[in-house]
Amino acid sequence: DIGADPTVVPEKPQAPDADGIVRISLTAQEVISEISPGIYFNYWTYNKQVPGPMLRIREGDTVKLTLTNDPSSLHDHNIDLHAVTGPGGGASVTHVSPGETKTFRWKALNPGLYIYHCAMPNVSTHNSHGQYGMILVDPKEGFTEVDKEFYVMQGELYTMGQLGKKGLVPFDPDALLDGQPNYVTFNGRIETTPRMQAKVGDRIRMYVGNGGVNLISSFHVIGEIFDTVYPNASIGGAMEHNTQATAVLPGGASIVEFTVDVPGKYLLVDHALARMNKGAWAVLEVTGDENPEIFKKIETKTN
User: What values do phi and psi take at 266, rounded to 5?
Assistant: First the structure.
């Protein structure tokens, strides 16, 4: 199961070592896993999950990032972090063949929520096999506290054959060029069991990304209104309030916050709703007392 757990969000930025340097290690690895029960795909991953682990550091940190390419891989890989200032975002110095390891150092100059991804040619091929993730650079003053944080990334899978075809489905380069994915997923695969839970009254923060490579996401939670949106995950820029949906660009991100007032199941979707048929949905389950002042079913009497 390569589907990254959306509840696994670092509670705070990773602490530097004694020498003041934050050290991060990732492994590029190619694995066979299910898109949906009985439908298998050759994923290219960081740390055997899609998206790769959510990384969290602080503005001003000096980071040493080590990338290893697992010996079982068939392809070369690297990493481009949009949080990095420097050639290729690190891709130019992290080209690793199977079994190889490379390290580079960089300084986090700007706060924000950023994508990282493989940038080996053909870049779109690597990304559309699932090789992406996000890194959060907390501002020096930190974030306001919330009750729950979730990590959600939309991605596209281009496979041969009809939607729902069982077995091992090969990658379809023509569908990639045409921008016609068979599957659009949140966190790598089609959800079978809800993994996000909250209670009435919880304030939620979602870190939302788009691994691409072709589609702009209209991210929306059905039955909720975003109290606060950080457009394009910009920290320090103008924020939006009372927003129904937010655009998440390919290779971009957004941060949304809202409070859940009513119990029930809330669907996360790309509001280009035909993509729900391709897997672009997930569920937030909210438990707690009913709130009839806000939401109440009226029973209709029939003769």
Answer: -115, 125
> What is the pLDDT confidence band of residue 302, given thresholds at 50, 70 and 90?
confident
Backbone angles phi, psi at 17, to 5 degrees: -75, 180
User: The tokens of 50 are what?
Assistant: 């899609």
Q: What is the 3-state secondary structure (H, E, C) of the chain?
A: CCECCCCCCCCCCCCCCCCCEEEEEEEEEEEEEEEECCEEEEEEEECCEECCCCEEEECCCEEEEEEEECCCCCCCECCEECCCCCHHHHHHHCCECCCCEEEEEEECCCCEEEEEECCCCCHHHHHCCCCEEEEEEECCCCCCCCCEEEEEEEEEECECCCCCCCEECCECHHHHHHCCCCEEEECCECCCCCCEEEECCCEEEEEEEECCCCCCEEEEECCCCEEEEEHHHCCCCCCEEEECCEEECCCCEEEEEEECCCCEEEEEEECCHHHHHHCCEEEEEEECCCCCCCCCCCCCCCC
How much is the mean pLDDT over the chain?
97
Instruction: Give me the pLDDT at residue 300, please.
Output: 86
pLDDT tens for residues 206-222?
999 999 999 999 999 99
For a pLDDT cut of 90, what percent of the chain falls above it?
A: 98
